[in-house]
Design brief:
The chain is built from two helices and five strands; from the N terminus they run E-H-H-E-E-E-E. It has 97 residues and is an alpha+beta fold. The longest helix has 20 residues.
């Protein structure tokens, strides 16, 4: 199985990492990236691990950080639509395909 990252999900990820870097330094930013990579690794092994959520999308909550990975599964492709902070306005990512 492979995954792809929606360009706006990539921006979500980059913005969150920058936030942690600015507030607490590069170690926390790197830990955030590591948590994301670990989560994606789990999803590649078990694509239905995340809860079925809105509009046929799935949602996987990261363990250490207050973020969800919003994704779809089609065949052998895992599409990551958003790396959404839990307190950001809900559903801002809905238009992403």
């Amino acid at each position: 199985m492979n995954y792809w990252l929606h360009p706006e999900a990539e921006a979500d990820l980059r913005d969150a990492a920058q936030f942690y870097r600015d507030r607490a330094g590069s170690a926390l930013s790197q830990a955030f990236f590591a948590e994301f990579e670990h989560s994606v690794g789990l999803l590649l092994l078990h694509p239905r691990l995340g809860a079925l959520w809105r509009h046929g999308k799935r949602r996987f909550l990261t363990r250490r950080f207050p973020f969800s990975i919003i994704y779809t599964v089609a065949g052998d492709q895992l599409g990551i639509l958003a790396v959404a902070h839990h307190s950001k306005r809900p559903g801002y990512w809905r238009g992403r395909k």
